[in-house]
Amino acid sequence: HEYKEKYKHLLYQKKFLDGVFTAIKYNVMKG
């Protein structure tokens, strides 16, 4: 159970970082 929670947290963190990276890339392409 503990492993599952940790994995879920890592997945959430990756999704968040992907979103930030996409936003930065989008801003660079625009500007």
UniProtKB/TrEMBL annotation:
GO molecular function, one term: lipopolysaccharide 3-alpha-galactosyltransferase activity
InterPro entries referenced in this protein's UniProt entry, alphabetically: Glyco_transf_8N
Lineage, uppermost ranks: Bacteria, Pseudomonadati, Pseudomonadota, Gammaproteobacteria, Enterobacterales
Domain Glycosyl transferase family 8 C-terminal residue range list: 1-30
Family membership: Belongs to the glycosyltransferase 8 family.
One Pfam short name: Glyco_transf_8C
Protein known as: Glycosyl transferase family 8 C-terminal domain-containing protein
Domain of life assignment: Bacteria
Keywords: Metal-binding
